[in-house]
Amino acid sequence: MKKYLLVVAIFCSCHNSDRNGRVLVHNPEKTFRESTSVDKEKNGMNINEWKQIEYEDSVQLKVMLKDLLRIASQNRWRNSFHKESSSWNYQNASCSASLSFGYLFSKNEKHLITRRSIAGSEIHIDIFVLRGTKFKPLLTTGLDMMGYLGDTVRDVNGDFYKDYLFHWYSSAGCCRRDVYAVYLYDGSRNTFSKKYTFMNPTFSSKEKIIRGVEYGHPGEVPLYKYKWNGTKVDTIEFIYPDTAKGKFYLSKIEDFDLAKQKGKVLNSLPQEYRNIESIDWFLFY
């Protein structure tokens, strides 16, 4: 069972921004979000008024982070510590924050994870490492949409160091889109890797394997299999369904036509894929 960190459930009195998101597996840095001046005018505010609100939000977020770091500093002698707070009241909307502190990623270093949100419109997450009496920033991430599901600390690449996983689900799209952004922790250098984003994944740290279902309609979307190679990801294979013949095509290349022409024909789905998450979506045709 996945072990999730305690996270803040955020409720707010107003939701005044349009949010859409989609992630492509092979471009982990790419997200989709549009916010135009026309949209802002429709909400009864001009661009300058919106910029002022965004500026004030930024200031308030800095105040919240400063308070969280102060609390963490007061408890840095502990092996572990968790605190949630909703003591801020900003623009008549609730603000929430939490911090988790301790040996979160390794047995040799203490880390701090902070989470901040204003009116539920964004979630801001920062990760620090304790150096002496100071907290050194290592990672910053967040989401500007109503899709954040939580964040997890677990070993996904089998190197015995726990990694950071940011879990979200897009509010727009045709098909199943359970997304994890993964930051691998390098214990030898105390750093995080670049972001790897996976659609509908199932992680097997023992095998160093990621299996999952790509984004798309049943009968068209393939299964995928990747393998961790240090802090890189190697592509192993894709499996496409043949809805007419009830067979499958195994290919090294993500392309249905090439898989059908040159891929290996499988009379049944390999056992290793049968229990992955979202397999029902792949077979629902």
Describe the structure.
The protein is α+β, with helices and mostly antiparallel strands and 285 residues long. The chain folds into 2 domains: 199 residues, no CATH class; 84 residues, no CATH class. The chain contains 4 helices and 20 strands. Strand 6 and strand 7 form a beta hairpin.
Q: Please report the number of helical segments.
A: 4
> Regarding quaternary structure, how should these chains be classified?
single chain
* Mean pLDDT across all amino acids: 81
Number of domains: 2
Explain briefly what this protein structure is.
The chain is 16% helix and 40% strand.
Offer a few descriptive terms:
disordered N terminus, 4 helices, 285 residues, alpha+beta, 2 domains, 20 strands, six-stranded antiparallel sheet
Topology diagram in text:
Elements: E1 23-24, E2 27-31, H1 37-42, H2 47-74, E3 80-85, E4 89-90, E5 93-102, E6 111-118, E7 123-131, E8 134-143, E9 148-154, E10 163-169, E11 178-183, E12 185-186, E13 191-192, E14 196-199, E15 201-204, E16 209-213, E17 223-229, E18 232-242, E19 247-251, H3 256-262, E20 264-266, H4 279-283
